[in-house]
Write a structure and sequence with these properties.
alpha+beta; two-stranded antiparallel ribbon; 46% helix
Length: 118
């Protein structure tokens, strides 16, 4: 269930950011590509910040290479690009969410991923 929920959410994030022709602007490079040619990368990685895995403010079209290289590290390499894209207020909100201990504990609920998938 968890992997299905992740796949569906990442597809949704690529589609939400796509124009009418299916092209997105990659947050790491600024390049325009078709949504099928990129990943939806998490600025705060879902492994270390599982409570942000389904937060749209944390997930953007990114090149497959950057997403792979980023691994479990916060997207420091593309922080400036993300900041330019969403603005300081939204970046502050995202940083606050990353440190929300209550939200982190909700992920431990067995029904969390089913709820996210639904």
């Amino acid at each position: 269930m968890k992997q299905k929920a992740f796949r569906e959410f990442q597809l949704l994030m690529r589609l939400v950011n796509a124009d009418d022709d299916g092209h997105v602007t990659l947050v790491d490079t600024g390049q325009r590509v078709h949504y099928t040619k990129c990943d939806a990368g998490h600025y705060y990685p879902k492994k270390n910040y599982p409570h942000l895995a389904f937060e749209g403010i944390n997930c953007y079209p990114i090149s497959k290479n950057t997403n792979k290289l980023q691994g479990d590290n916060v997207g420091i390499r593309w922080r400036e690009q993300l900041l330019n894209r969403i603005g300081q207020e939204e970046m502050d909100k995202l940083d606050a969410l990353a440190n929300d201990q209550k939200a982190k504990s909700e992920v431990l609920d067995n029904n969390y991923y089913r709820k996210m998938y639904d």
